[in-house]
Amino acid sequence: MKSILIKTLTLGIVFSAVSLAPEGQAKAQTWAGKASYYSGRGHTASGSRVGVRTAAHRSLPFGTKVKVINLSNGRSTVVTINDRGPFVRGRIIDVSNGAAGELGMRGRGVASVRISTL
What we know:
- The chain has helices at 2-18, 97-103, and strands at 30-38, 54-56, 65-70, 76-83, 91-96, 110-117.
- It is an alpha/beta fold.
- It has one domain: RlpA-like domain (Barwin-like endoglucanases).
- A six-stranded mixed barrel has the order 1-5-2-4-3-6.
- It is globular, with a radius of gyration of 18 Å.
- Residues 3-22 have low confidence and may be disordered.
């Protein structure tokens, strides 16, 4: 009985700590995976145009700001989600050509990255 009570208290403390984000402020999300880039022009799924620092993500809301860090060289940039994709297994984000240059990934085309919502 004592071990159940301790586990319950521990879980309660953990859940309390997790839910202490200030009201109205979204909790940052982080993923690691592969990024690719595209140099297309024209309109995106959101109806806006491909920009210097824009990106495609499968599910994040349009307008979400995301910090992208290239894990092989430490370079980073902030992009705005305005398109859908990538639809290639293992890839978590497609960045614009300009963002790919800032990340130093144009030569390889694909890079291991960590992304975090801001």
